[in-house]
Amino acid sequence: MDKAQRLSVLDDLIKLETVNGNEEIVANYLKKLFEQNGIATELNKYDDNRYNLIASIKKGNGNFLGFTGHEDVVPTVDNDKWNYGPFNPKHIDGKIFGRGTSDMKGGLAGLAIALIELNEDDNFKGNIKFIATVGEEIGELGSAKLAKEGYVDDVDALVVGEPSNSSSRLAMEKLIGAGLIETNGQKPESRIAAFCAHKGSVTYKVISHGRAAHSSMPEVGINALDNLVAYYNKQAAYFQELIKTDDDVLGTTKPSVTIMNGGKQENTIPDYAEMTVKIRTIPEYNNDKIITELKDIIDKMNQADPRMNLEFKLSSSNWPVKTDIDSKFMKLVRDSYKDVLGVNILTVGAPGGTDASQFIQANQNLDVVVAGPGNESAHQINEFVFEDDYLKYIDIYKTIATKYFG
C-alpha cells in the first residue's frame, strides 16, 4: 500500500464507533479488507454485534507468529470537549486525532496492513496469524474465548499492538520516574519503547454478612462493617508480606483496596458490607497462589469466630506476562526497531494489561512483545497518534516478522 492507503485504513477504523459492545463493524471492515487482498478470514461470534476476527497467511512450515489487537475503544466522555469530535479523524501538525487512535486502532490497522504487505511479498516465507478481539477494555472477553478454543495453540510468539510509546522523551522519563513503566535502572534513549512484560491482575470482592439491629442494642446484631474491618486489617498484614517479592522488570506486586461500602441508615447496625480489591501481580507470586492464600485467611477467620461470615468472590484473574528481556525474541525485536528507526529502544515493563494475559494461560510457552504506535493520550480527550509513528510501526511489524522467519 502507498502512504495514502495506509492512512485511509486507520481513518476508516476511527470512524467506526466501537465503544465496547459494537465491535462487529470493525470485524466486518477487516474481513472485507483482507478478502480484497486475498487473505482468508474467520469470524468468531462472542455475542450479538460482537465478533472476533482471525486471518492468517501460511507461506512456510511450522507454527505461527501472532499479530493481535482489540476492536473496542473506551467511552468518549465529554464529547463537546473534543476539538474535532471523537469519531471524526483529523490530521493536524503530524498528529491524527480521534478515539482509539492510540488505544489501539493505530496498532490494529498497522498490524493488518503489515499482514497484507507480507502476503504480497514473494520473498516472505513465514506464517502469520492475525487476531482481532472484542471486549478487551472491560475484561479481555474475546481473547479469553479464543484462548479456550485453541486459537493460539499453534502460535509460538505474539506481537500485541497496544501503545508502547510516549509523546516525548520527557514524558517517557516522567512515566519511568513515577514507576508506571519499570526499567530496572535503564535510561531511555528515545520516547520509543517496547514492553517485554506486564503485570497481571486479581480483582475480587470480600463480602461481610451480618445481622441488622437497632443501634441502641448493637449486641443483638452482628455488625458487618466491624467484621469487614477486621478482615481489612488481616489483609493489610498479608499485603505487607506480599510486596516483599520483586521482579527484575516489573517491580513488586501492587495491591489496592479501591471500593468499600456498608450500612444504609445511621441508627441501624449494618447487616452487609463489602470491599473491592485489585492486585497487580508478578510472575514470582502468581495469581492462583494469591487467591488461595486470601481464601485461606477468610476460612480461618470464619472458623475462629461464629459471628464472622465473610465471603470471597473472584471477579477476574488475568495472568502476568513476561518474556526474558535477554531472550532471542526480544533481541530480534530490538534489532527490528533499530533497523527501522535507527535508535536503540528500551524493552521494559508495561503499566497496564493486555489480551496476552488470556493467551498466555492457554499457551504458556508464548514469547510476547507489546509494541504499538500509541502513547499516554490513550483514553483521554483529544486522543492522538503521531502519523509518522503509525507509518513506521507498519515497517517495524514487517521487519519483526521477516527476521523471525529469516
UniProtKB/TrEMBL annotation:
Presence of the UniProt keyword Zinc in the record: yes
Record carries keyword Zinc: yes
One Pfam family in the UniProt entry: Peptidase_M20
Protein name per Swiss-Prot or TrEMBL: M20/M25/M40 family metallo-hydrolase
Stretches assigned to the Peptidase M20 dimerisation domain: 197-302
Keywords on record: Hydrolase, Metal-binding, Zinc
Family: Belongs to the peptidase M20A family.
InterPro entries noted in UniProt: ArgE/DapE_CS, Bact_exopeptidase_dim_dom, Peptidase_M20, Peptidase_M20_dimer, Peptidase_M20A
Organism: Companilactobacillus zhachilii
Domain of life: Bacteria
GO molecular function: hydrolase activity; metal ion binding
Signal peptide coordinates: none
Entry cofactors: Zn(2+)
